[in-house]
């Protein structure tokens, strides 16, 4: 019986010890902001450090989804930011799992986008959304002589 008590005490000691395994602390999504101009909308997602990420365009509904693996949303972030500027309907953020967050950007038809990343103090995801160039009807064609 004494041996069993000893093993239970050792087990309890290991269970209550802090984790010093060096496991990575998830990045925190600390801000989502947008600026809207006449022909361009810029969205900036700010994180404390670089997470794993993936960009997924979806067709139904038309949107751009940024998956941030190893990231948690700050509780101060709004879950939805309405934009409604003719290119972007709104920006929605949610905690997908314990250590994975998603930011979904609702797009209007005809919007083009470019996603880039910047390692600065922390990590920044830049999404540049523009109007698609209209097809030019003033093209002059060269004819073979």
Please supply descriptive tags for the structure shown above.
145 residues, Immunoglobulin-like, 5-stranded mixed sheet, 1 helix, elongated, disordered C terminus
What's the topology here?
Elements: H1 2-16, E1 27-36, E2 40-47, E3 52-59, E4 62-69, E5 71-73, E6 80-82, E7 88-97, E8 100-107, E9 111-120, E10 122-131
Parallel strand pairs: 1-5
Antiparallel strand pairs: 1-2, 2-10, 3-4, 4-8, 6-7, 7-8, 9-10
What does this entry look like structurally?
- The chain is mainly β and 145 residues long.
- It has one domain: Immunoglobulin-like.
- 10% of the residues lie in helices and 54% in strands.
- The strands form two sheets. A five-stranded mixed beta sheet has the order 5-1-2-10-9, with no helix packed on it. A five-stranded antiparallel beta sheet has the order 3-4-8-7-6, with no helix packed on it.
- A hairpin with a 3-residue loop joins β1 and β2 (40-47).
């Amino acid at each position: 019986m004494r041996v069993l008590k000893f093993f239970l005490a050792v087990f309890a000691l290991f269970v209550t010890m802090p984790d010093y395994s060096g496991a990575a602390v998830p990045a925190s999504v600390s801000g989502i902001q947008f600026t809207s101009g006449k022909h361009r909308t810029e969205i900036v997602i700010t994180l404390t450090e670089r997470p794993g990420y993936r960009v997924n365009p979806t067709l139904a509904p038309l949107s751009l989804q940024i998956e941030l693996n190893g990231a948690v949303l700050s509780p101060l972030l709004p879950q939805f930011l309405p934009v409604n500027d003719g290119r972007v309907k709104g920006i929605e953020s949610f905690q997908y799992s314990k250590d994975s967050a998603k930011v979904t950007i609702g797009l209007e038809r005809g919007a083009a986008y470019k996603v880039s990343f910047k390692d600065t103090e922390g990590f920044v995801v830049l999404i540049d959304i523009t109007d698609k160039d209209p097809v030019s009807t003033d093209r002059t064609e060269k004819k073979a002589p």
